[in-house]
Structure formats: C-alpha cells, structure tokens
Design goal:
Layout (H helix, E strand, L loop, with lengths): L6 H24 L4 H26 L17 H11 L6 H6 L6 H23 L8 H29 L1
Helix pairs in contact: 1-2, 1-3, 1-6, 5-6
Amino acid sequence: MAYSFNAEEVFKMAVQIEKNGAAFYRKAADLQEDESDRKFLLGLAKMENQHEISFEEMKKDLAKHETAQTVFDPNDELSLYLDAMADAHGGEGDPDVLELITGRESMEEIIKTAIGLEKKSILFYVGLEDLVPVRLGKEKIDKIIREEKKHIAQLIGFLKKIKKVDA
C-alpha cells in the first residue's frame, strides 16, 4: 500500500531539515579557529534559519485541503515519523554528517559537503513530490525545490570566492 503525503507534511519535514542544516553550520563554525571562517559559517547557519522561516510561512499559506490528514493518527505519532524521515533522508543537515565534522576540514571541504547534501535534499523532495497527490498540494513542493536550488547556487558562489582567496 502506497502512502500519500500532503503538502503540510512535506513542509514540516523541510522545516526540520533546515533546522538540522543550521546545526551543521553552527558545529562547523564552533570548530573553526579562524574568526572570519567562523563568522562565514554562522552566516550560513543564519541563512538556513531564514529558509526555516520561509518554509513555515509557506506552510501557513497552504489551503485547508492541502493539510488534510492522510492517515489515522490517534496518538499523534505522525510528527515523530516526519522528524525521523527528515533526519534520515541523507541530505542537508543529516545528523550522521554532523557527527563526522572534526574541525580539521577546510572551508572548501565544508562547502563542498554542504553542496552535496543540498543536492541529496533536492532528490528527497523530488521523490516526496511524487507521493503528494495534486489535491493535497503537489505543486507546492516545487517551491521547496526551487529554494534549495537557490541555496546550491549560493553555496557554489561562496565556493568560487573561497577558491579565489586561496589561490
């Protein structure tokens, strides 16, 4: 039996993923000795926080039918399931990757890792989009994907700046 998500559920996961992403950058920042690198990474954490706020706002704008419950959930366990999916999706803010940060990574390595994680997140959302019926807000998931693509473009821009500084 296939499970269908509604747009609200996907936005809830997106918010959790952004929280995890901010934690990734904060941990990387905390491990930096260079103050400018530290500030740069804290700026990226702040950007993730802004994405979180954006996704929360988008979630508030959903129509009632896009938030319709898709499963019987008398014990309110769905939110736990959604958080677990967000944590285990293997992309942006993956808690397993967070644990691997040692402080020995270069800024270039951190940004390249972040770009790879963002790409995995986009694939995750594309897969979820296929599980959201049109009546439950399928087209709204594309907003998340577009935001993540913008973030990749920003990270690539940052990576290019870092490479110029190191050259």
